[in-house]
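Example 3.2
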Amino acid sequence: MLRISQLWITCLAATAASGLQAECEYPDEAIIPDGAASTYEEMRDSQTFIKEYMAEMEVYINCLEQDYSSQAYEPIDESELTSDEHPVNQGELHLQQRHSAIDTMESVAARFNEQVRTFKKVNP
């Protein structure tokens, strides 16, 4: 359920803020091997990939920060919105994107560490 919420927030934030993060690229999804079926080399290589993924996520978060701080956002005139439109608060949207990226990083790290523990149990 938590994972679905994170994905939903990420998709919503990315869709609503296409102008906000025009140059901030979200990294490709991290692929985590099955620790029970992986070789030592696969686990070692995946560790390198996970470190690169985390660095790319840091770049993404820093880009969001720079993009947000460099933008001058106009206040929204709610009287111009149609009844089915809702105003987008850029500050809240920025925080959702940032928190979603951090949550994703924590989730990837936890899943990878779980697979490392599994690998160590299978291969003492």
